[in-house]
Amino acid sequence: MDMMTSIAQMSTGMSNIKLQQGISTAMTKKAMDTSADMMKGVIEMMDSIPKFPGAKGSILDVRA
Questions:
Q1: How far apart are CA 56 and CA 47, in angstroms?
Q2: Confidence of residue 57 (pLDDT cuts 50, 70, 90)
Q3: Whole-angstrom Cα distance, residue 32 to residue 29?
Q4: pLDDT tens readout for residues 5-53
């Protein structure tokens, strides 16, 4: 294998690694955005539950 072929293979390999890292980063960001949107929905649902101060079940005390 001559030097030009080695350099070309190394360059191609480095480009592939850079592309894979970019794709991985984009997928991670998308997953984080989706999770954040889901949590916003959960919080909105919790806020929409009617609250009756002093009524049974208005306080949930959970201990492990």
A1: 18
A2: low
A3: 5
A4: 899 999 999 999 999 999 999 999 999 999 999 999 999 988 887 776 6
pLDDT the model gives residue 50: 74
Residue 22 token pair:
């970019």
DSSP code per residue over 27-44: HHHHHHHHHHHHHHHHHH
Angle at 50 between CA 44 and CA 56, to 5 degrees: 130
CA distance 11 to 8: 5
Between the alpha carbon of residue 36 and those of residues 10, 26, 27, the distances in Å are 39, 15, 14
